[in-house]
Amino acid sequence: MRFLMLYRPANIAASEAGTPPTPEMMQKMGALIQKKFAEGKLLSTEGCMPTATGSLVGLSKGKLSVTDGPFSEAKEIVGGFALFQLKSKQEAIAEAHEFLEVAGDGEVEIRQIFDAPSDGNF
């Protein structure tokens, strides 16, 4: 099963300021990422830039809207994502816990990816 994990940092101000992680944290996170790739569990991961570089695109009743960041009123932001290949949701929860031990305060939303049946029937 594949799982998308969305990281939401607790310190939104630091994330929005584009404050880079400490060298120690970067070293620990790099080691964790390499370990998970080597184990064959981690398929992809990236960090996100501050919302000032992003946009919200919506469609309502056929009308397209585009709102450029920053999203100063946002109570939570996505700081990064990871895509995992794992055996269970419990394993995904364990991976999220291990990640947060390095990343620090925040939360990880876990979403299982829909995999279409190989026979094409839904």
Protein model, in words:
- The radius of gyration is 17 Å and the shape is flat.
- The chain has helices at 12-16, 23-38, 89-103, and strands spanning 2-9, 42-47, 55-60, 63-68, 80-85, 106-112.
- The chain is built from three helices and six strands; from the N terminus they run E-H-H-E-E-E-E-H-E.
- Helix content is 30%, strand content 32%.
- Strands 2-5-1-6 form a four-stranded antiparallel β-sheet. A two-stranded antiparallel sheet has the order 3-4.
- It is an alpha+beta fold.
| Proportion in helices | 25-40%
Termini gap: 17 Å
The counted number of beta strands is 6
The residue ranges in which pLDDT falls below 50 over 5 or more consecutive positions are none
User: Proportion of β residues?
Assistant: 25-35%
Instruction: Characterize the largest beta sheet: strand count, sense, and whether it forms a barrel.
Output: 4 strands, antiparallel
